[in-house]
Write a structure and sequence with these properties.
Blueprint: H1 2-17, E1 22-26, H2 31-44, E2 49-53, H3 59-63, E3 66-69, H4 75-84, E4 87-92, H5 98-103, H6 105-124, E5 130-136, H7 160-179, E6 182-188, E7 190-192, H8 205-215, E8 218-221, E9 229-233, H9 234-246, E10 258-259, E11 263-265, H10 267-275, E12 282-285, H11 289-294, H12 304-310, H13 318-333
Parallel strand pairs: 1-2, 1-4, 2-3, 4-5, 5-6, 6-10, 7-9, 8-12
Antiparallel strand pairs: 9-11
Helix pairs in contact: 2-9, 6-7, 8-10, 8-13
The structure holds serine (SER).
């Protein structure tokens, strides 16, 4: 009887969903969230998108559409925003990244896992229809083959962040298999962008280096020479994020998370690319604890499954990224 009543209420919720059509971005002021919000607002119209974060964003974020202060770990608050705005799709972008999570393991676990459970449970209960949740190359570890890392392989992450992402992947797949939750995910490589600076990641050197090059002409790198990591320009990442949400349900064959590749490079290669624009730019290497994290991550990623299933293809190579970064950051430092 209880079961019947529950399934009736779930059905009613699902019916309501047809009248709902807004998108909620949780973590809209972060590195990815900022650009994702802009892209979704321009694609669907400002009224269809609700940006939210634990803190206020810049003027562009606050004035261009709906914005809510929202703590991703507060189930009732997330549910309330979903209800008030008639949200049917959630992009859960709030997370604590790899380097900072090593300093606050319990906090990172709480944020990275509980926010995911809240959103998955809201989908399971029929209150939202579709979920995007980001995973990362951090799900891999020292025992993973690190060149052309396959979609399915050994995964023994050794960082707090990696453990949370790998666990999250397992739960996403579980919620899809058990409850039919339409959750889609990508394992992002290091992301390069100029709009918002990243915070607390290991791949962040590859953004910071452009700022320092323009400001000081020199960069002290916290990773050593030869540390090749998979990277991607933000526009590619946003295209992938919206792309995977666009395709038909049946086309998504992987419900944990898809490997995604752009370009792979080491600090000395970015240096050479920057020197094509700023010939006097120099770099020195002072590896810290983040070197240990980077050493456990793949050098390059095999993303053939994403290419096959939903037509993924990256566009930006290292020199194209450097040109865009220098052109857009230069006015800030001159
Ligand atoms: N860019 C992230 C980090 O360095 C990896 O997903 O933490």
């Amino acid at each position: 009887m209880i079961k019947f009543a529950l399934s009736l209420s779930r059905k009613r919720n699902l019916n309501n969903i047809h009248m709902k059509s807004r998108i909620l971005i949780i973590g809209a002021c972060g590195q990815i969230g900022t650009e994702l919000t802009t892209a979704l607002r321009s694609r669907f119209g400002a009224d269809k998108v609700v940006a939210s974060d634990i803190r206020e964003g810049d003027e562009g974020m606050m004035n261009a559409g709906h914005f809510e202060i929202l703590d991703a770990t507060d189930y009732a608050a997330v549910e309330d925003v979903i209800f008030r705005y008639k949200v049917d799709t959630v992009y859960l972008m709030a997370a604590m990244l790899s380097a900072i999570a090593e300093r606050f393991p319990a906090k990172a676990w709480d944020l990275n896992m509980n926010s995911l459970f809240h959103v998955l449970n809201l989908a399971k209960d029929g209150k939202i229809k579709k979920v995007f949740w980001p995973s990362s190359i951090a799900v891999f570890g020292k025992t993973t083959p690190n060149e052309n890392t396959p979609q399915m392989t050994v995964m023994e992450p050794s960082t707090v962040y990696g453990i949370s992402k790998q666990t999250g992947e397992r739960w996403c797949e579980y919620y899809y298999n058990k409850y039919g939750v339409d959750v889609r995910s990508i394992r992002y490589p290091g992301l390069i962008s100029y709009t918002t600076e990243p915070g607390g990641g290991t791949t962040d050197y590859a953004v910071d280096i452009y700022h320092r090059a323009l400001k000081h002409g020199h960069y002290r790198c916290f990773l050593k020479e030869g540390t090749t990591l998979p990277m991607m320009y933000m526009d590619d990442a946003i295209r992938a994020t919206i792309g995977i949400m666009d395709v038909d349900l049946e086309d998504i064959k992987i419900r944990s998370s898809y490997n995604l590749a752009g370009v792979s490079y080491a600090p000395e290669e970015v240096t050479m690319s920057i020197q094509k624009h700023l010939p006097d730019f120099s770099i020195t290497y002072e590896p810290d604890f983040r070197q240990e994290i980077a050493d456990t991550w793949p050098k390059s990623i095999d993303d053939s499954q994403a290419r096959k299933d939903w037509g993924w293809a990256h566009k930006f190579d290292l020199d194209a990224i450097t040109k865009i970064m220098i052109e857009n950051l230069r006015p800030r430092y001159t």
